[in-house]
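Re: the request from the purification team.
They wanted to know what the chain is likely to look like in 3D before they choose a buffer screen. I agreed to run a prediction and write the result into the notebook, where they can find it.
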Amino acid sequence: MLSDRPEINFLGFERSVCAAFTGYRPYKFITSFPQGEARASVADMLRPVIRELYEGGMRYFLSGMADGFDLWAASEVLALRDSGDCPYAEVVAVVPYRGQARGYGVDAKLLYDHVMREACRVEVLAEQYYPECFHHRNAFMVNNASCVVCYYDGQSGGTRHTVRLAHRNGLRIINLCASQLDLF
């Protein structure tokens, strides 16, 4: 017999109110934004999607805290929350290992620190780096969300892995890059 109780994720939230972000590091955006306007352009694409998800009941937005799309997306959630557009939106920082931001540049490190301070919850999945830590972080996010918002143009790497994992698990996928792109 099926239960009418909502599915509660590992974080203690209803999965139906959680979305996860996945996308590229800044250098991978050069093919889409050769003029270096990736952050501003991606932010412009993210805002209406976050608003729409929020209006549909999403409240928790999981960020893998990687430099680039993950941090930009988390920053947009916080900006929309702080402006009053999405007053109850929250960021959950899913950190693959303690010290993740050690190699980030100054701007990315400042953004990382800001998101970490403002997140409603920080999940550090490992005390130190190990070879599979990013795959485990991606699986954690997919397993705790009902929707994945991505920027994916077909390049190989963690974003491809996460999008495919989300598809295999039946999650809704919103691709900011190209909705007509054949993801699979």
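For the purification team: The CA atoms of residues 40 and 72 lie 9 Å apart.
Please add any questions underneath this entry.
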